[in-house]
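A quick word before the example. In earlier lectures we treated sequence and structure as two separate objects. From today on, think of them as two lines of the same record. Here is GNAT family N-acetyltransferase written that way.
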Amino acid sequence: MKIRHAEVTDIDALLVLSEQIGMLHFENAPFAFNKPSAADKLFWLNMLNHDESSLFLLVESDRQVVGFLTAMMTQNDTIPFIVDCPICRVGTIVIDEKHRASGIGTKLMAACEHWAKSRGAAQIRLEVMTFNQSAQKFYQQLGFQDQSHIMYRHLD
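And the structure line, produced from the sequence above:
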């Protein structure tokens, strides 16, 4: 298994994984997520052109892309009552359906933590949907705790 920075040439493999996580989210929360579409390619290509404040890692196993993680550094400098420490925010982490529960996600998160610490991050934050119980359990096993809940209500 090899963890490396994603490149534009990885786009087709990334789209396969993106569709897996996209369908999972669309099927469980269609009020919040659109069905995967051709528009996803441009989104991921733009993400691949990251700067120093962003991270885009992927995992290869036998020359096949089996997972990826995106993250970015942020820091509050405008709201006086919110801490102003550097924060690493994980955007997306997805492991191929056939390779889940094999330690790949843990290795990606460890690589992300190393990257975040090297940039002075004091915290790593992420959002996980309530329907995704397996992801919640995974993050809890890594020491993550609930900090807030995002609530919504449909307006008719």
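Notice the following. The first strand starts at residue 2 and ends at 5. We will return to this example when we discuss secondary structure assignment.
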